[in-house]
Amino acid sequence: MTNSTPKRPSVFIEKMMPVQLLNEQVNFEHGGNPFKGLHRWYSRKPLSFSRASVLASLLPADITMQEFEYLLGLVPGKEVKLYKTPPNSVQIKKVQDYCEKVWGTRTPTVLDAFAGGGSIPFEAARYGLNVLASDLNPVAVVTMKAAMEYPLKFGPDLQQDIDKWVKWVGDEAEKSLAEFFPCLSDEKTVHYLWAHTVVCPNCESVVPLSPNWWLYRRTEKQNLHRWCAVKPIPNPENKRVDFELVKGRKGKGTTILTNEGEYDPEHKSTISRGVGKCPNCNSVIEEETIKAYAQSNTLGHQLYAVAYRKNSGSLEFRIPNHIDLQGIQKSELFLFSKINEWELSGIIPTQQIPDNTHRGPDMYLYGIHQWHQMFNLRQVLTIGTYVEIIRKAKLKIQYEYESEKSNAIILYLAIILNRCLDKNSRLSHLDAVTGSVKPAMGQHSLNLFWNYPEISLWGLLWKYESPKTISDYCELCNLINSKSSIFKLAGIEQHNPKYIQIDTASADSLIHITDNSVDVIVTDPPYYDSIRYAEISDFFYVWLRANLLDIFPDLFFNELTDKDREAIANPGRFRNMGVSPEELANQDYEAKMAMAFAEYHRVLRNDGVMTVQFNHKDSGAWDVLAKSLIDAGFEITASWAVSTENPQNLHQAQKNAVSSTVLLVCRKRDPNAEQAWWDDVRIDVRNIVFEKAPELEKCLTEDSRPAADRVADPQRRIKPPGINLCLSAFGSALSVFLWLAMDEIKAKVSYKQTEMPFNEGGQLNLF
User: Residue 262 pairs with which residues in a beta bridge?
Assistant: First the structure.
């Protein structure tokens, strides 16, 4: 077999990668990160991993590992967290010098058309490169504008303007909403605890549903005497359930020890695995009965506890009183007087949850058909009031500032409101172990909770999320070098906002990019059905649309996000078609991936590099990826596996994902290259894996630090390569395998024989 590929610059990623170092850097990012915190997005790749992917795809192969690590931003003898360390002026200049040598320009064009949350374009922008980023989903586009485009255009000076209007909106909302959140004279409410309710079919009592009645059980020594819960008290005479507060210190296991004895809040649960129990008559309420009630009457709501603070003291709890109930009643009456006006004007979104989604039909089972029904009535009133006030602010902002700056300020106001939504819905929940409210999108899915918190106007809502957003904006300005002083130094390409272009576009139709115009593609495509981006992002989209439709009409033209063109396997789109929805969904995903890679092939220059990030444990997914690359005209020249996924993330549990992400380095295949049969290359595949395995293992485990650093810290643990070695070797095998012409193969052997060479255990089968 001969390789007649055209002359092309060899790049660093085709020779080596500091895999072990990146594994360590990725670990640093499992904590706080302003880039991830600004707005919720799903499965963002770590910044350090993305930076290394971009630089290694651009820089020449003949630089040393030490030089590469320096250009990444590492300092010998010093612990550096890359995600929060922007490159300095010297590093940027050296990268641009190398780019000129390799690509003929100091600012080569880097493209990611599956940009999502924007990790890859963000890192490319930090080096002053020419960045093209796009995504089909408007929520992703808005997120990237806020995290990259506006910090680069306006820098930290915009903070004062954002601050001014955040305060104005907050003050106006406080005037409008204060009467609906009344407090006792010596306290400020933080949040309210609600339970969904049904009517017992046996005794007709209103039954609050909760898997436990915990309020607070932090395990730190100083908190063990402050454990708190409520106890349901049967009240059959009034056909309801009342509550009393239980406070004390930790008892045996997870019980509260009081003067009356031990109390276990989990033993008094009223629902378990979807089946309820009435405290008044002890009747079992079957799951189907609960669903039938919810569909015909909608689930009710009962307030069972209030969290508050006295002055700046610790969080305390109490049972609801008449003042709390009056505030709720007043808010509901006011909402009923406003709801028609707000729905007609678009302040309250009325879009239906689509039935061709994964979670939509699940929500229907509990009487939820519209997106605003994921909030209780006072939550809807709170959100609607903020939308109404942001609209008033919008007119004042547009009068005071030029168009682009006013758009930026309004966008950040909308983002702050979205952050409030994430913490304040029927999809949020209280984590009594940490004492915190967990967001709706913490698990990257749409899950209704039996009991949920409502955050008070005086709690961790606008006044809490707005300073965090402004802080994140300022941090992002620093992380992305938006002060721009480094770009004014001699020898560094002058930065211009035109060097980052963020578009709404489907990856299979990049009509805004000309042929052979992109130097490097670094991309992270979706993985079958691991995350249904469009479906779950509608939770945010409908409220962004309420705030931003007139600002970005092209972004928010559709009522909901585009699920038909989304490149995921969504069986919901193919129900009732006479064949397996899963099979049709997979075929649809595969076709879209093939078209996307064909577009990548069109826009990439002939000697360019494409680095694909991919993460999936199913060998069939690799089969589809490889076939898409073959059909598009690519070959694989190298591969590396890096541990990028946080094993503590709940949304990773039992998903079709492994802890490692594989970097597949691709080049355009020479159309005149000699073709071969599988039987001809089987031995080549086997031999190259045996040849590459020791070299790959060395890269995966070698401590590349200077000798002085190794002496100073000789105990640094090097993880065995394990699955990373297997996945990296797989790429090496593909570098030979992809020389096969699929049409030729299919003419000679069965399709089963052309699948990727895995055995039943998921290991490479090269023999």
Answer: 257
pLDDT tens digits for range 31-40: 667 777 788 8
Claim to verify: residue 698 and residue 630 sit in the same structural domain: yes
HEC sequence for 447-484: CCCCEEEEECCCCCCHHHHHHHHHHHHHHHHHHCCCCC
Question: Using CA atoms, how far apart are residues 461 and 638, in angstroms rounded to an integer?
Answer: 48
Q: Higher confidence at residue 526 or residue 485? A: 526
169 within domain boundaries:
no
pLDDT digits (tens, 9 = 90+) for 392-420: 999 999 999 999 999 999 999 999 999 99
Count Cβ neighbours within 10 Å for each residue of 192-212 and write b for 16 or more, e otherwise: bbbbbbbbbeeeebbbbbbeb
Q: Indicate whether 113 and 53 sit together in one domain.
A: yes
Q: Are 381 and 335 in contact (CB under 8 A)?
A: yes
Sequence-distant (6+) residues with CB within 8 A of 657 are 527, 530, 615, 616, 617, 645
Determine contact, residues 516/606, Cβ cutoff 8 Å.
yes
The single residue listed with the structure tokens 């009240």 is 235
Considering the chain, what is the average pLDDT of its residues?
Answer: 84
Q: What is the pLDDT of residue 287?
A: 95
Confidence at 106, pLDDT banded by 50, 70, 90: very high
| 371 inside domain | no
Residue 705: Cβ within 10 Å count: 20
Nearest to 561 by CA among 136, 115, 41: 136
Q: Which domain holds residue 537?
A: 12-159+472-754
Whether residue 723 is contained in a domain is answered as yes
Count how many residues are written for the chain: 767
Instruction: Specify the pairing of strand 284-285 against strand 275-277.
Output: antiparallel
Q: Is residue 402 a part of any domain in this protein?
A: no
What is the DSSP track for 129-173?
-EEEEEES-HHHHHHHIIIIIHHHHHGGGHHHHHHHHHHHHHHHH
Which pLDDT belongs to residue 755?
38
Q: Dmax over Cα atoms in the chain, in whole Å?
A: 88
Q: Are residues 511 and 453 in the same domain?
A: no
Report, as an integer, the average pLDDT of 620-628.
Answer: 74
Distance in angstroms (rounded) separating the CA atoms of residues 256 and 731: 55
- From the list 616, 610, 614, 613, the residue with the least C-alpha distance to 597 is 610
Query: pLDDT, tens digit, for every residue of 130-171?
Result: 999 999 999 999 999 999 999 999 999 999 999 999 999 999
Rounded Cα gap, residues 731 and 737, in angstroms: 9
Gap between the terminal Cα atoms of the chain? 19
Of 149 and 753, the one with more pLDDT:
149
CATH label of the domain that carries residue 104 = 3.40.50.150
Please check the confidence at residue 720 and state whether its pLDDT lies above 50.
Answer: no
Number of domains observed in the structure of the chain: 2
